[in-house]
Amino acid sequence: MRFSARSRRAETSPASAAARASRSASSRSPASSRILASRQFLDIGTGLPTADNTHEVAQRIAPESRIVYVDNDPLVLVHAQALLVSAPEGVTDYIEADVREPEVILRGAASDLDFDQPIALMMLGIMGQISDGDDPKGLIDRLMAALAPGSDLALSDGVNTNPALNAAIKAYNARSANTYHVRSPEQLAGFFEGLDLVEPGVVVTSRWRPDPVEVGKVPEDQEAAMGGVARKA
Ligand SMILES: C[S@@+](CC[C@H](N)C(=O)[O-])C[C@H]1O[C@@H](n2cnc3c(N)ncnc32)[C@H](O)[C@@H]1O
């Protein structure tokens, strides 16, 4: 199922804060600059629409940018239908699909994205929703294998470095059907294996952000979300 859309982020799990922290595409870091230079985006785990969605940021810089959003939550689909907006020069599309079926996503995206050209694969705040039993690294590899050299993976998620957050996640998992799988920084870094990490590497997500003053900013040593950008050679 597909609809052109823009996205707002779902507050579906303890990963949400981490995801919100990481999705700012306007950053001074080389990693974010790399993503901002992309003209094609495959944004998996879109979430509900909010301000500065991927297509808004991308098409502000380059109106011809092509964006395909993917989420498996029917609620996201409802909002996506209401918010189909794209610059006339570009494309914004929405596919309802599950990241655990990469080939379905790749087939669906092929009508909007040129797979002979680089594509930025955005996986912000989604892999924590995928259990080890579903082979998250294997899913990433299957997606990246279909992308042209020069394509980037931007991935972020919660990490298990904050005991208070770990306790909250444990409590959340005990009462929720959708469990969240918080991983170590090393496990998160492992998702980039086989790709060339862009500076500053896998870091706390605030280091992607430009704002000199951020209301409510969490001190870096208490942050429990990390991410990075890596390029396919
Ligand atoms: C924490 S939100 C992150 C939203 C957004 N990427 C951001 O950075 O703000 C995670 C999103 O992943 C979606 N999601 C969870 N499991 C998924 C799956 N198996 N396939 C596709 N999307 C999934 C959820 O519906 C939700 O919208």
What does this structure look like?
It is a single chain. The chain has one domain: 3-Layer(aba) Sandwich (Rossmann fold). Mean pLDDT is 85; it is low at 1-22. The longest helix has 13 residues, at 163-175. The radius of gyration is 16 Å and the shape is globular. By secondary structure, it is an alpha/beta fold. Strands 1, 2, 3, 4, 5, 6, 7, 8 and 9 form a nine-stranded mixed beta sheet that branches. The chain contains eight helices and nine strands. It has helices at residues 15-22, 30-36, 54-61, 74-82, 102-109, 136-145, 163-175, 185-190, and strands spanning 2-3, 40-44, 66-71, 91-96, 120-124, 152-158, 196-197, 203-204, 225-231. Residues 1-32 are annotated as: Disordered.
In summary, what is this structure?
With 233 residues, the chain is of the alpha/beta class. It contains eight helices and nine strands. The longest helix is centred in the C-terminal third of the chain and has 13 residues.
Classification by helices and strands: alpha/beta
Order of helices and strands: EHHEHEHEHEHEHHEEE
Rg from C-alpha positions? Answer: 16 Å
Overall CATH architecture: 3-Layer(aba) Sandwich
Which parts are unreliable, with pLDDT below 50 for 5 consecutive residues or more? 1-22
Shape: globular
The CATH topology is Rossmann fold
User: Count of helical segments?
Assistant: 8
Main sheet: strands, sense, barrel: 9 strands, mixed
Strand content: 15-25%
Give the ligands present: S-adenosylmethionine
First-last Cα distance: 32 Å
Q: How many β-strands, per DSSP?
A: 9
Helix share, percent: 25-40%
CATH superfamily: Vaccinia Virus protein VP39
Mean pLDDT: 85
Number of domains: 1
CATH class: Alpha Beta
